[in-house]
């Protein structure tokens, strides 16, 4: 198991006896995201308020690649299903897509007017969705790097976004006390789910 701190420390733990295996040293500020490579459990992705993301060698604790280019904090980061790409969501309303092996920047996705809160890649690796405090989500093609559509309907910041396990649906969770369901291919609105208080997260059952 890995856990991260407000001060940028990432620690790998043995869950059987609670002992610390080693630390991953490199971030200089709060770590906001951790994710294992879905194709290689020995690679770990982290993203931080220091404006960088790292790909780590889990067994050795060394940084394999540093993703630099965001000018402020990175709120969210994720691997593509094949492990070849990484998407990061920045506070300047910009998402970036990187080569996960080399750390090379592949593209910059612009359009949001406020900082990005969440990011997700479809199970087939062909689409990416970003969510923002500008109250919209945006669906992008990872083949052309072009925006497919803007998901409009929320009236306050969106805190989370997810693809369904099959990729056919997208869920957004908003501070406007609702979650919404969208078509995962076209972005068309399907349903609004009212909640008594602001919605912080959404998740599809597998």
C-alpha Rg (nearest Å): 17 Å
Task: Give the helices and strands as they follow along the chain.
Answer: EEEEEEEEEEEEEEEEEEE
Give start-end ranges of low-pLDDT stretches. none
According to DSSP, the number of beta strands is: 19
**Mean pLDDT score:** 93
How far apart the termini lie comes to 22 Å
Using the coordinates above, name the CATH class of the domain at 111-206.
Mainly Beta
What structural class is derived from the secondary structure elements?
Answer: mainly beta
The portion of residues assigned to helices is under 10%
Q: CATH superfamily membership of the domain at 111-206, which one?
A: TolB, C-terminal domain
Q: Remind me, CATH topology of the domain at 111-206?
A: Neuraminidase
Largest sheet: 4 strands, antiparallel
In CATH terms, what is the architecture of the domain at 111-206? 6 Propeller
- What is the helix tally? 0
Judging from the principal axes of the Cα atoms, what is the shape?
globular
Report the oligomer: single chain
Strand content: over 45%
Describe what you observe in this structure.
The protein has a domain at 111-206: TolB, C-terminal domain (Neuraminidase, 6 Propeller). The protein is built from no helices and 19 strands. Strand 12 (116-121) and strand 13 form a beta hairpin. The protein has a four-stranded antiparallel beta sheet, with no helix packed on it. A four-stranded antiparallel beta sheet has the order 8-9-10-11, with no helix packed on it. With 206 residues, it is mainly beta. The two termini are 22 Å apart.
């Amino acid at each position: 198991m890995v856990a991260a701190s407000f001060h940028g420390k990432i620690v790998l733990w043995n869950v059987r006896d609670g002992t610390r295996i080693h630390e991953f040293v490199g971030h200089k500020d709060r770590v906001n995201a951790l994710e294992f490579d879905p194709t290689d459990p020995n690679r770990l992705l982290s993203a931080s308020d220091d404006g960088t993301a790292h790909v780590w060698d889990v067994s050795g604790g060394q940084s394999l690649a540093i993703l630099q280019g965001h000018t402020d904090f990175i709120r969210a980061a994720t691997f593509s299903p094949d492990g070849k790409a990484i998407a990061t969501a920045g506070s300047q309303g910009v998402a970036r897509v990187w080569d996960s092996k080399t750390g090379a920047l592949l593209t910059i996705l612009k359009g949001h007017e406020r900082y990005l809160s969440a990011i997700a890649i479809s199970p087939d690796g062909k689409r990416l969705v970003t969510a923002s405090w500008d109250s919209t989500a945006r669906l992008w093609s990872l083949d052309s790097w072009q925006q497919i559509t803007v998901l409009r309907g929320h009236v306050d910041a969106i805190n989370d976004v997810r693809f369904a396990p099959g990729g056919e649906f997208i869920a957004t969770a908003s501070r406007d006390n609702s979650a919404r369901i969208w078509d995962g291919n076209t972005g068309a609105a399907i349903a609004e789910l009212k909640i008594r208080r602001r919605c912080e997260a959404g998740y599809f059952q597998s």
